[in-house]
Amino acid sequence: MTQGDTATAAFEALRGRLFGLAYRMLGARADAEDLVQEAYVRWHQADRTGIENPEAWLVTTTTRLAIDRLRRLKTEREAYVGPWLPEPIVTPAPPPDHRLDLADDLSIAFLTLLERLSPDERAAFLLHEVFDVGYREIAAAIDKSEAATRQVVHRARERVRGEQKRFDVSEGARATLLQQFMDAMEARDERALLALFAPDATWTADGGGRTAASPRPIVGADRIARFAISLREKLWPANRTIGFVTINGETGLAIRDGDHLTAVMSIATDGHQILAVYAVVNPDKLSSGGTSTGN
What we know:
The chain has helices spanning about 5-25, 30-45, 55-80, 105, 110-115, 120-130, 135-140, 145-165, 170-185, 190-195, 220-235; strands at about 90, 195-205, 220, 240-245, 250-255, 260-270, 275-280. By secondary structure, the chain is α+β, with helices and mostly antiparallel strands. It folds into two domains: about 5-80 and about 120-165, Butyryl-CoA Dehydrogenase, subunit A, domain 3 (Up-down Bundle), CATH 1.20.140; about 170-285, Nuclear Transport Factor 2, Chain: A (Roll). The protein is elongated. The protein starts with a helix and ends in a 15-residue tail after the last strand.
């Protein structure tokens, strides 16, 4: 095996992990894939004789690239039309009792919450909390002292955990709520919809100016119930179907017009009511298939 073959094999063994980091940093599959490819090029261009730990080198390189990319994306996302949601990774639905360890740190709700962090905070938080990287390695990746890095992680953890509502919800319970939602919407049953949603529930739709979507989140069970019924009555072509898929490791819904994917919906729930709906309807975010998310 040549040196090039060895280098490629070392990289490919880590590709899933690097993509998982890049996707969680950027919230966009194409950007994450481009970034991983850039890390691959840099890996092959580097003097690897001085690299003792390939994984640490590649994670550091990917992190720095992601921080730079996220800073450049800031202006673009500030100008985005309507709410911005991460690009979903959609795969066929698992059995109702299926459960993924990745769901908590990959969900649309979680990634949306990470948007509130600075690029450095997001990187440090993900590396420590999701990828179990030590403070010394994180400090090297974000170019800060170890003491400062500990503060960055602590601050990010407080912001995220303080705002994240954490519930131990099985995928079976999530699927049951989504089935009840589909049944109530099909029946135009406003009372059933009201019972499904928490009083202060939110419905956030990302159309990106490419298709019709509310320019701001819809707040309140009553408004969401009326919206869902209106959606079913007025904006439902004859060939439109709705069914289960997996969205970022959690059970969600996909709406299709024939074979064309029109929207995906994921929810945040306490297992009894729906607390939030995240609907991606921007066709640019629905055009590509699912991919590995690493760990």
